[in-house]
Amino acid sequence: MKKVLVVLIVSLLATSMLFAGGASEEKGAAQFKIGVATIHEGETWEIQKKYFNEEVGPALNMQFMFSEKLNDANGLVDFMDQAYAAGCVGIINFVTSNDAVAQGSRKAEEWGVWFVTQNSALNSNVAKITHNLGHCGASATGMGRAYGEAINDLVSDGKEHSIFIFSGAAVGGAIGQGAASHYYTVEGILNAMKEKYNLKYELGIDEIINNQNPGEVATGNPNVKIYIYPGTNVSSAITAAQTQLQNGPYDIFAAVFSYSSFSNAIADVEKSTGKNIKVLGTVSIEKQTSTGFSSMDSFGDSVLSAAVLNPLNIQNGMCAVILYNALTGHAEAMKANGHTILFKVEPWFCKDAKTYENISKLDNSHETYVLNGEDLKALCVENNPAITYKDIEAKLVELSNIDAIIEKRLK
Amino acid sequence: MFRNRKAKDALFTFAFPLAMFVLMELLCFFLKGRHLVGSLLDVKTLVRNTGISAIIAFALSFNLSCGRFDLSLGAQRLAGTIIGGMIAMELGLSGLWFLLFSFLCGLVFGFITGMVFVITRVPPMVLGVGIGLVWECVPYTMSKGKGLNLFGVHGTEILTDTVFTIAVMIVVAVFVSLIMNRTKFGYEMKAIQGSQLIARNSGINIFRHAVLCYMFAGGLVCVAGIIDAAFQTQMSSTMGLASNGVVVSNMFAMMLGGYIGERSNQATGVIVASLTLNLFSYGLTLMELSEANTSVVNQTVFVLFLVFLANRYYFRKRKAEKARIAQALEQRRIMSVA
């Protein structure tokens, strides 16, 4: 009986080793396993995962291990532990707080794992750590510019308009405590309103944005009002928005995120007050944005009047390229004299439903990805030894022109 | 005498929202120069928030009043609402069906949680943490992390209608009132609230009762979930017990409702308490407090209320104690004289 058992175990082990060997032979060259520490979830994140798995992975011989939604530095370090144990050689980090980037970079350095962060501001404290490859994120100042453009477009009728801003995590955004993109979005709006109506703010713009209490901004013009609601609690923000929109003269609503959550509250105000409220939001290419542009409010306008789009897959693709270059021994080419770089992805301004109709056709397949496999390979030092971080920056500038992209990918 | 007592109880019950209204109205008027309720839209917002809050408080009261704090209730709300909503959406059904499917899914999740509790006998809070984490994964996996998105979904408008919210709240209140006061379940609950051991020894099947409590709680919390999701156009599929925040934040309404309900009934108490607290938070919103400050104020008031609840008989007890000591001393004096 014992002999039979021993024979069985030995044959089982032999078979499993045989299959294991076969599997590795089938795989061919070893893939780079990359951990992706995300702060996202939902439809937008699923679209990004698809891009990682179906476009970036095959192009750069990478396999991705995705985290669940992370909230802070502790979550990031825990995930990095798991990723390292699972054999990851690189990390794409989405957790943007200063302490998360610092702890993540130091952990990566300790383990010899390459580390790149998606953020709009550079953490200079860890900029010289060898395995920290810097940041790639929505250009915070670009967000400001795009929102400025959007505001100018919305108030171009020559009338006086007032605006309610849901500023999200803008407080502290300029110094790495909140979200830099939120901070510069609000800054862009305030600057655009100031220029348009020659407003004279009683406080400096930085002081206005960093006020933790919701409230009206003293503009010096009684007919042009600006209300800022800071915070990330959407439920509370909805109640505040509803009361201010119905009681104040506000006829433009801008949300740095989750604009659609406010749509019912805004529709109620429109019905109750007869006021046509324009909605401006930060969005990405997804079904919800199409719905926003195609759904009509009680005035026959689209629910989403204008939008600033974050081309998230450009950031994802660029982070993967930066990691790939480091993994193939060209990390220095991705830095400026050993100092990490902040690669800025310019957002796109979408002024109406017609423009979005074209944009929505992008990022669906290999042919329509704004940054597809061929583009990624062309940025690899392995394929072109002359590539440096400057080429990546130049590519990002090229990708800021949405009209040119539509022309190239769709026609 | 009877009529007088009834009037007193009614006055006691409605004094809470009235006092809160007056307080917040004065604060809003003097600090911000505006009224607490200035339009029909304000009333609608208050009604919707009160409805959601009251239904969650009812759900909480099933287990909490029997000494079980179910920490998975938020996860049941998340799972039931998202999955129920997804089913209704897949079938192309309209608003009422979203409510029905969410309710049914909530009943199922509540039933399973209850069954796991009675089979494993793991303490409710520990079980709640574990099973809550599991429940959160279910909608996450099923929706591929997308959660429930009702933005632009036709037919869900009814769920955000004020009259509909009031109707649902009344149905829930009548349901809770009936089963608490007019059924065997309600009498068993009162016995269990007294002592589980005595209730069990007197022939009550406390485990079947527990499963029913979990089931009703799960169903109700999903009704609140779908109304909330319909208004906010979405419910994100969160992980790490983040779903529990909404439920826990309504514990104050449940406890205050229990206190107010001592003079009327639990259903009235919970609705009145929810209204009172929503007037309070609506006032804080109008006073433009930051999220952090609002949270500090809310939680401080909650803690103060708990301190009051724990010590409300303090002076009566102390008076009785003093009287008892005085009586004993008097007795000793008499005995020593004798």
Specify the CATH homologous superfamily of the largest domain in chain A: Response regulator
Q: Give me the Rg of chain A, rounded.
A: 24 Å
- In the CATH hierarchy, what is the architecture of the largest domain in chain A at level 2? 3-Layer(aba) Sandwich
Strand order of the largest sheet of chain B: 1-2
Q: What is the terminal separation of chain B in angstroms?
A: 46 Å
Query: What kind of assembly state do the chains in view correspond to?
Result: heterodimer
Task: Please characterize this protein's 3D structure.
- The complex is a heterodimer of chains A (411) and B (338).
- Chain A has 411 residues and is α/β, with parallel strands linked by helices.
- Helices cover 46% and strands 15% of the residues of chain A.
- In chain A, the strands form two sheets. In chain A, strands 7-8-6-9-10-11-13 form a seven-stranded mixed sheet, with helices on both faces.
- In chain A, helix 5 (140-154) runs parallel beside helix 6 (180-197).
- The N and C termini of chain A lie far apart (73 Å).
- In chain A, 52% of the residues are buried.
- Helices cover 78% and strands 1% of the residues of chain B.
- Chain B has 14 helices and two strands; from the N terminus they run H-H-H-H-H-E-H-H-H-H-E-H-H-H-H-H.
- A two-stranded antiparallel sheet of chain B has the order 1-2.
- Chain B is globular and about 90 Å long.
- Chains A and B meet through helix 2, helix 8, helix 9 and helix 10 of A and helix 2, helix 9, helix 12 and helix 13 of B.
